[in-house]
Write a structure and sequence with these properties.
With 407 residues, the chain is of the alpha/beta class. The chain contains 18 helices and eleven strands. It is 45% helix and 14% strand.
């Protein structure tokens, strides 16, 4: 019996993927190798920085017929509960310094943290649209570095995630429509009110800040690769607008060169803009309400900057059901197959669910080259960022799962 439901699983190979070659000039143009060094130096200087753990899911790997399965657990990142802390806050830091420099203030991060230029910093307002985690990161970055913040959420963002954003002093605006409608409203209001958009998605005329966000994410990838005993053969990574997947793919190419692992990008059934783009050979948008339990991945439009990387470096695209994601959450919470139990949020497990579903379907496993010799890395992008939703889906609170882990 499969470890997760396979109904609804879809696979699309990317015929344009560049394999067996060094990182392409196109990818380097988007994600220069110098970007990681800058992000590591900056983020590593922040209070509370520590690499997140790499968990060995040896039991689940055996049950799935894989050689190894490693899970990069972002649930404790800076106390925000997700990898997004690396991207949004990093972009806020860079943007705020640049704006202050235009006003004759050469502010270092230590100056911003101490409030040395508090009055000038408060005159800068950053804004973004979010499904939850990115907005929380931007709000946290604005809070610790001292600028103002307005965050736009759409109708299906949970009250728990709204409260988590507001807790950092951001003004939260709920709008009609889906995530992409919130992106457009944030951009329009920013132009009208002189705010600065800090988005993890890019669009024509807006590329540099999303590049900073993606560079922040490469710190997570670099930590994972540094902790591995052997190079991975496969990486399964969440989709969304593509920023996280592109950052991981680009850094994997930098780390392993022509021998880079196979990159599989995983999306929910109702928000598969990357898979549809791979099938069409160009960025396409998907419509509808984009509703999925994997709230952080409810995106219908591809980030153009991310697509520049993924068209070369994304080998495969998978779609999984909400049921597969919930089953993966429960596997981890239960300590299935003898592995230690831990908490993983609904968007965190998309890559894991995609891997386990693919491994259970012989035709898809063969197409991906998955088997007993495979060393798979997945990125657990969040913990229980909405504890109420987690408890409803898993049947236990995050605290109960954590208590079982430490017992």
């Amino acid at each position: 019996m499969p470890l997760v439901p396979v109904s609804g699983l879809r696979h699309q190979h990317n015929p344009k993927a560049a394999t067996g070659v060094p990182v392409t000039a196109r990818v380097r143009a988007v994600m220069p190798s110098s970007g990681l060094a800058a992000a590591k130096a900056e983020i590593g200087s922040w209070p509370g920085y520590a690499p997140t753990p790499l968990r060995d899911l040896a039991g689940i790997a055996r049950a799935a017929g894989l050689g190894a399965l490693l899970y990069k657990d972002e649930g404790a990142r800076f106390g925000l509960g997700s990898f997004k802390a690396l991207g949004g806050a990093y972009a806020v830091n860079r943007l705020l310094k640049a704006e202050l420099a235009k006003r004759g203030i050469a502010a270092a991060t230590a100056d911003l943290l101490s409030g040395k230029y508090a009055e000038a910093a408060r005159a800068v307002t950053v804004t973004t649209a979010t499904d939850g985690n990115h907005g929380r990161s931007v709000a946290w970055g604005a809070h610790i570095f001292g600028c103002a913040c307005v965050v736009y959420i759409h109708g299906t963002v949970s009250p728990g995630r709204e409260r988590a954003i507001a807790a950092y002093g951001a003004q939260v605006v709920r709008v009609d429509g889906n995530y992409d409608a919130a992106v457009r409203r944030a951009a329009a209001d920013a132009e009208a009110y002189g705010r600065f958009v800090v988005s993890d998605t890019s669009y024509p005329g807006y590329m540099e800040v999303p590049r900073d966000v993606m560079q922040g994410y490469t710190v997570m990838a670099d930590e994972a690769f540094s902790a591995l005993a052997a190079p991975p053969t496969h990486i399964f990574v969440q989709g969304g607008v593509g920023a996280m997947a592109a950052a991981v793919a680009a850094q994997a190419w930098e780390a392993y060169g022509a021998a880079r692992p196979r990159i599989a990008v995983v999306e929910p059934e109702n928000a598969a803009c990357l898979l549809e783009s791979a099938a069409a050979g160009r960025p396409v948008a998907v419509g509808g309400d984009l509703e999925t339990v994997m709230a952080g991945l409810a995106c219908g439009e591809v980030s153009l900057l991310a697509w520049e990387v993924l068209e070369d470096g994304g080998d495969d695209y998978l779609v999984v059901s909400d049921a597969a994601a919930v089953a993966a959450m429960k596997l981890l919470a239960d300590g299935a197959c003898g592995d230690a139990p831990f908490v993983a949020g609904e968007s965190a497990v998309a890559g894991l669910a995609g891997c386990l579903a693919a491994a259970a379907v012989p035709a898809v496993a063969a197409a991906l080259g998955l088997g007993e010799g495979s060393r798979v890395l997945v990125f657990g992008s969040e913990g229980a960022t909405d504890p109420e939703t987690y408890a409803r889906l898993v049947g236990r609170t995050p605290q109960e799962v954590t208590a079982a882990c430490s017992a």
